[in-house]
Design brief:
The protein is mainly alpha-helical and 50 residues long. The protein is built from 1 helix and no strands. 0% of the residues are buried.
Length: 50
């Protein structure tokens, strides 16, 4: 295969990976933020209230 074809293939793979990551990341970021808030609230509860 010509080296130019590898560049085209790599570009297509990059675009597809970006689109998939964009779809998954919105849900993933929300989940990570929610878990961080739960951990923070649990830490504050056990540190100050208990």
């Amino acid at each position: 295969m010509h080296p130019f074809a590898y560049y085209i293939f790599a570009l297509i793979v990059l675009i597809v990976a970006f689109l998939v990551l964009k779809k998954v990341a919105s849900c993933l970021i929300k989940s990570v933020v929610m878990i961080a808030l739960v951990v923070l609230l649990a830490f504050l509860y056990f540190t100050y209230i208990r």
